[in-house]
Structures are given as C-alpha cells and as structure tokens.
Amino acid sequence: xxxxxxxxxTKAARGLGSSKSGTHHHITQRVSAIALIFLVPWFIFSAIxxxxxxxxxxxxxxxxxxxxxxxxxxxxxxLYHMRLGMQVVIEDYITKPGMRGALLILNSFxxxxxxxxxxxxxxxLWIGAGA
Amino acid sequence: MSxxxxxxxxxxxxxxxxxxxxxxxxxxxxxxxxxxxxxxxxFLIAGWIVALATGAxxxxxxxxxxxxWFGSVILYLWAVAxxxxxxxxxRHLLWDGPAIxxxxxxxxxxxxxxxxxxxxxxxxxxxxxxxx
Lengths: 131, 132
Fold this sequence. Notes:
The complex is a heterodimer.
Chain A: H1 9-13, H2 22-53, H3 55-62, H4 65-93, H5 97-128
Helix pairs in contact in A: 2-3, 2-4, 4-5
Chain B: H1 23-54, H2 59-67, H3 69-96, H4 104-131
Helix pairs in contact in B: 1-3, 1-4, 3-4
C-alpha cells in the first residue's frame, strides 16, 4: 500500500487471515473430536480384533449392520477431523504461497478420496453379504 | 504482512529452541506428531478395508505383513498414537470448554498421565482383542 500514510496496521490487516473462517474451523474441529471420543476406542479394539481374526471373520464382521454403520461414521468423523488438523500443520510450516495452496488442495482431495474408498468398501461388504 | 510499517517493535513469541523442555512442552508437540502420524496411519487402515472388500487376491499378502513382527509393532504404535491423541484431545476440550487443568502442577501431571494411558491402554486393548 503506497499511499498508506493514513492507514493503521489494523485497517490494512482487516479481512485477511483467520478472521474469515477461523471460528468455523475451531468449532468443527472440536465437534468432530467429541464424536471421535466415542468412536475411536470402539474402532481400535474392533480393528485389532478383526485383523487378528483373519480375512473371512473380518469380512463377516464388516457385513453386520452395526459395525458397518459405525465404520462409516468413524471414517466420516476421522477424515473430517484429520483434514482440518493437517490444514493447520500445512499453514504453520509451509510459507511459500504456491506450495501451500497445492498442499492444502492435495490434503482435501486425499481425505475426501479416502472417505469415498472406505465407504464404498464397507457398503460392498455389507451388500455383498446379502444383508 | 499488512503493507504498513509496524507502529512499535513488539517482541516475538519465544522460539522452540529457547524453551526448557518440560512435561507440557513434550505433551504439546507429541499431540501434533501423533496427529500427523495418525493421518498417514489412516491411509494404511483405508488400504486394509479396501483390500478386504476387493477380495482374496491381495489380502493374504497384507495379512502376512500384519502378522509379522514388523506389522504388529506398527499396529501397536498406531494404537498408542491414537490413544494418546484421544486422551490429550480430551484435555484440549477441557481447556476450551470448562477451562480447567491450567495449573502448572496439574498440567504436568496430566501430561505424564496421558503418556501412561496411551502405552498401557494400547497394551490392554491388545490383550483384550487377543483373548476375548
């Protein structure tokens, strides 16, 4: 700002940075965290159990209605939460605008693609079992 | 930067290197490290579920890896990281919501408690999953 003689730093900074959507980020990060308090303990136990039970038992476990629903909910809350978390890490450490923007887009794509892949896999196992 | 010169030369926040290491310092950076590690761990979990759904061809190879000592160590460390991020995340919610746990002695004690819960809790879940 060349003619910024009468502009205070506050006036120049207003509208930039987290003043745009920081509150929404803060709240949704915490709401997804509250959901994960209930989902994650169940998932750690169930995932270790299913892996150790072998392929057939694991596929049968996913094909039941309650585990299938909880798996999709866990995937949704987890991917949403980790997308927000990685966004903050990228914003903290990557200062070059081009690289930062590219990584933020990659972060969103990776999380949404993983949610789609997990959900489709769970649905396939559930529908495939004829439930 | 705003484009306007700063009105006064305000002090910068102390940098990572000038902090004396202490319990809450480690707890804070561990929260971020476990968060990033869990991010990449989710790729592995997603790969496992996709392999399970696509059928028999690739699953035995993944199962060989999961049952090896290396796979078991990774799976145990994943459980430790997930539990740590979970209990330390609850602490963050208690800071943000009811605003409790800020006293230095309490905060240090909770930090050590969180590490303990993560390591022993993962072992307990592992034992329960193996024997139940």
